[in-house]
Amino acid sequence: MSRRQLLRMIGAVAGGAAMYQAMGNLGFAAESPYRGPPRLEGSGKGSSVLILGAGLAGMTAAYELRKAGYKVSILEYNDRPGGRNWSLYGGDSYTELGGATQHCRFDKGLYLNPGPWRIPYHHHAVLDYCKLFGVRLEPFVQVNYNAFLHNSGAFGGRPQRLRTLKADTQGHIAELLSKSVRQRALDEQVSAEDREKLLEGLRRWGALDADFRYLRGETSSSRRGYDKDPGGGLSARPLPSQPLGLSDVLDANAWSGLVAGENYEMQTAMFQPVGGMGMIGKAFGRELEGVIRYRSKVVSIQQDGGGVSVAYEDTGNPGVALSARADWCLCTIPLSILAQIPMNVGAPMQAAIDAVPYNASVKVGLQFKRRFWEEDERIYGGISYTDGPIASIGYPSTDFFSGGKGVLLGAYAGGLNALEMTSMTPEQRIETALEYGSRIHPQYRREFDNGIAVAWHRVPFTQGCAGRWTEDSRAEHYDNLCQIDGRILLAGEHASYIPAWMEGAITSALDAIGRLHQRVATGASA
Questions:
Q1: What's the mean pLDDT in 289-293?
Q2: Do 403 and 446 meet the contact criterion of CB atoms below 8 Å apart?
């Protein structure tokens, strides 16, 4: 059995949290190792570092190296800092590969985060830099039991509340297991004393009645909700709800949605910057004012015994050749782009660069005339999941009860669905989000105002969402990717064991500059 097959089995049987723990044990994922920025003992004065890319990895490196006395400069393709740390606001324009230009028409204060949109509590580096730079954070609601789980082939296509399916799944499992315990089917594994403890635990966990049954009643309704909620006065008496049958629960195939908030990286508490994820990139950019040269497209990276020379173009003045040179180069350009740029590194690093494809991802932001998910359905933050191509709908975790317009994340697609949506025009992606979202929220068409859609394989500066490692490619190429090659070294989420997360980018950069500084401080030559 391969590790991949083992992980799939663990995820199917025990859920995402157990699978993520197993991934950590096998070296696929781990808690952020960040315990503060590295102490760059000694002085970097007299040494220069050219950083390619003003994403979080590049800007973290620049900030810390400059503190240590290095002469630092950054070349950035975009006209803004942040890289994939990016928010789209009303008035922004975005042109994707192929030439389609979208003009964001969201109302003031509303936005879409095309890239990262949440920060786990244990991503210490991101949180520390937010605190250092004064980026205000607020809670991000990952799990909302009043959101929906939707399977087009179950319940006549009608979405079900997450709390309902979760309660009924636990209830039926607890009833089955308690029956096995009472029939002494587990006597070899459970002592007499532990049997009673297990039964009592199952009763509470599954909301079972006194006879260890999961039935319609006060106990089950206190988990799954009531047909008529308790109130006051003569109309106060609640009406219990009827649980779904076990076969109906299994037909819903809702396992992935039920455990989405149990994955280690999705567990409460989670956070988001007030005003959009791009506030983090903007804060770094303010700290590094004058260090970053924007609209700079790198076309060649060449090193020799004395340093690194980079040829680039000003995208505002195409055809004008420019160059920059430094003693060292830290390259944070995504591998999907770097693989297309001539660079004279050794065969091991080049092979590593070429070995990592990038995941597909599509996000669609939909502005509606009113916050109907709150007003009609009492959904405040959280995520609904569907088996349709849009995969999920994210509800804003801010401005509750504000009235007026609001923006939903109307699609967050990956895999084959994302590839198919990438082949569409932006208008077709928005139409797809409306079509499948209407199956969960019938108000969609009536309340829709405008939208914007970002397909990451058409984003010019990444041509993909995040690096996709396999067990075999990590074993063969990861160390070679991260080693210093002459006077060049790489950093970014692709050079981490926390891929696709900002924490991976930052910790990768801190590790890289720590090793670079050690080489400079000891006077070691490239």
A1: 98
A2: no
The Cα 450–Cα 363 span in angstroms is: 14
| C-alpha distances in Å from residue 103, one per residue of 15, 93, 461 | 41, 4, 19
Output b/e per residue, 435-468; b: 16+ Cβ within 10 A: ebbebbbebbeebbebbbbbbbbbbebbbbbbbe
pLDDT of residue 182: 92
pLDDT digits (tens, 9 = 90+) for 241-265: 999 999 999 988 888 888 888 989 8
When pLDDT is cut at 50, 70 and 90, the band that residue 33 belongs to is: confident
Q: b/e for 321-356, b at 16 or more Cβ within 10 A?
A: eeebebbbbbbbbbbbbbbebebebeeebbebbebb
Report how far apart, in Å, the C-alpha atoms of 325 and of each of 64, 65, 318, 343, 517 are.
20, 17, 20, 14, 18
Contact 480, 486 (CB under 8 A): no
Q: Residue 468: CA atoms inside 13 Å, Cβ hemisphere, count?
A: 11
Torsion 15-18-23-29 (CA) sign: positive
Report pLDDT for 526: 60
Question: Mean pLDDT, to the nearest integer, of 432-457?
Answer: 98
Give the rounded percent of residues in the chain with a pLDDT score beyond 90: 84
CA-to-CA separations, 502 to 117, 121, 125, 270, 278, in angstroms, rounded: 10, 13, 9, 14, 12
Instruction: Please compute Rg for the chain using Cα positions.
Output: 26
Which residues are registered as beta bridge partners of 311?
Answer: 300, 323
Residue 515 phi/psi, 5-degree rounding, is -70, -35
- Is-cis flag, bond preceding 147, omega within 30? no
Helix (H, G, I), strand (E, B) or coil at 509: helix
Name the nearest CA neighbour of 451 among 478, 428, 430: 430
- Cα 394 from chain centroid? 12
> Residue 457: phi, psi to the nearest 5?
-75, -10
Instruction: Check residue 15 and give its pLDDT.
Output: 39
Which one is predicted more confidently, 73 or 5?
A: 73
Write down the mean pLDDT value for the chain: 93
The predicted model gives 84-91 an average pLDDT of 98
